[in-house]
Amino acid sequence: MELREVISTGNDLAAEAAVDAGCMFFGGYPITPSSEVMHTISDLLPAVGGVAIQMEDEIAGVACAVGAGMAGHRTMTATSGPGISLKAENLGLAQMAEVPLVVVNVMRGGPSTGLPTRVSQGDVRQAKNPSHGDYRSITLCAGNLAECYTETVRAFNLADRFMQPVFVLLDETIGHMHGKAMIPTVEEVKKGIVPRKKFTGAPEDYRPYGVGPDEPAVLNPMFQGYRYHFTGLHHDAKGFPTEEIETCRKLIQRLEDKVMMHTDELEYNEEFMCDDLEENDVLIIAYGSVSLAAKEAIRHLRAAGIKAGLFRPITLWPSPAKRIKHFTDKVKNVLCVELNIRQYTEEVERVSSRLDIHGLYKVNGRAISPYEIVNKVKEII
After folding, report:
1. Which of 192, 207, 236 represents a domain boundary (last residue)?
2. Stretch (H or E) spanning 175
3. What's the mean pLDDT in 276-293?
4. What is the pLDDT of residue 315?
5. Beta bridge partners of residue 75, listed in sequence order
6. What is the CATH number of the domain that holds 49?
7. Of residues 7, 207, 168, the one with CA closest to residue 76
8. What is the DSSP string of 260-323?
9. Which of 299, 371, 361 shows the shortest CA–CA distance to 335?
10. Which of 367, 124, 157 is nearest to 265 (CA)?
C-alpha cells in the first residue's frame, strides 16, 4: 500500500479521512473534545461539493445526518459521550431502518458533563448499546494517529456493507495528539471504497427489507424512482409498519445475524509481542491511547526479564471473543488496563469464563503512564 507522511492531530485526521472516503455530508454540534472534527470537515467538504452543517444541538445533528444517509450519501456526525446520549433515539432509528452512518466519538470523562477537557474511555459500554432494543453495534477504536485516519475510512466501508451506524472511538489524548503519521494516499483510499448495494430492477418489484436472513437492507437513494416506507416501527419488506408475529421476529433476528454471522469481516486486532507468551507470563489487554503506554511498559518489563505482551482489540464491538479466549486460556496472568472502571474487563471475563482478571483503572481525567503498568504487573506476578 502506498503511504504518505502527514503531521496532524487525531481529530483532524478523522475529518480528512471522512472526505477522502467519500463523505459528502456532516451534521453535528461542537462539543469538547471532538469540536475540531467539525471545524476541519466544515472547511474540507465545501471544496469537494459536500455540505457541513452546525445544527442547533446534537439531536438535530444526527437527525440531518440520518436524512443524508437516506438520500444515498456517505454521511458522518461527531461528538463525545454526552452527545451520544442525546443522539441515542435517532441512532436507534438508523439501526432499525438500516441507514449507514459514521459516528466519531472523542471520549471524555463522565457521566453527565464530567471532565470535558480530560481523557477517558468511559463510552465503551455505551458504544455497545447506544440505543434501546436488539441489534449489534459495530465499534472501532483508534490506538494511534494513523488509525484515526484508517479506522474512519474503514468505518465508512463497513457502514455501507452492513447498512447501519458504525462508531469510531477516539479518546481525548488521541484526538488532540499532534504528530507524524503514515497514512494511505487518497488514491489508495478511493480504490478501496465499496459503495452500498443498489436495486436495479423494476420499481414495482423493489423490496428494500426483503433480503436474506443474514443480509442488510438494500436502500436505494430516495428521489430516484424507488418508493418505500421509512419508519422506526417493526416493518415488512416494503418498510410498512406491521405487528405480524413472524415478520417481526425475522426482522429483529436479521438485525442480529447480519452482523454476528459475518464477524470475520469485522474483527481486527493487534497482537504485540504475544508470539512467545507462556503460561506464567503476562498478557496485557488495552486499547486506544492506553495501548501506547502498554507497549512502552512491555519494553521495560522485557528489559527487566519479565515476559509480557499486548492484545489490543481495534474492533471493540463485536468483541474478538475467540482471540481473547485463546490468550486467556494460554496465559495465567491477565491485566486489563482502561481509562474507565472495568467497561471492557467485563467482556474479557465473559468470553474467558475467568473471574481472576486483574485490572488497572483510572477515572480522574489523567492518562495511565507506562510505569504505573510496570508496577501493576510486578504486583501480580
Report:
1. 192
2. helix 172-176
3. 98
4. 98
5. 25
6. 3.40.50.970
7. 168
8. HTTGGGT--EEEES-TT--TTSEEEE--TTHHHHHHHHHHHHHHTT--EEEEEESEEES--HHH
9. 361
10. 157
- pLDDT band (50, 70, 90) for residue 70: very high
Note whether residue 253 is domain-resident: no
> Over pLDDT 90: what percentage of the chain?
99
Q: What is the DSSP string of 54-83?
A: E-SSHHHHHHHHHHHHHTT-EEEEEE-HHH
* C-alpha cell at position 137: 453495534
**What pLDDT score was predicted for residue 223?**
87
Cα 79 to Cα 106: distance, rounded to the nearest angstrom: 6
Total of domains in the chain:
2
Distances in Å between the Cα of 224 and the Cα atoms of 194, 219, 221 are: 20, 11, 6
Mean pLDDT along residues 315-326? 98
Q: What angle do CA 196, 124, 90 make, to 5 degrees?
A: 50
Confirm if 295 and 272 have CB atoms less than 8 A apart.
Answer: yes
pLDDT band at 321 (very low <50, low <70, confident <90, very high): very high
Between vectors from CA 70 to CA 161 and to CA 150, what angle results, nearest 5°? 40
CATH of the domain at 363: 3.40.50.920
What the block records as the C-alpha cell of 59 is 439531536
Q: Determine the length of the chain.
A: 381
Q: Are 335 and 380 in contact (CB under 8 A)?
A: yes
Mean pLDDT of the 306-313 span: 98
- Burial label for 234, CB within 10 Å (0-12, 13-18, 19+), is middle
The stretch 213-240 carries a mean pLDDT of 95
Last residue of a domain, one of 170, 192, 214: 192
Distances (CA, A) of 372 to 62, 147, 298, 331, 340: 39, 25, 12, 21, 15
**Residue-wise pLDDT tens digits, 198-212:** 999 999 999 999 999
Confidence of residue 222 (pLDDT cuts 50, 70, 90): confident
Q: Which cell numbers in the block locate residue 298?
A: 512491555
258's grid cell = 447480519
Radius of gyration of the chain (CA): 21
Cell 445526518, residue located: 65
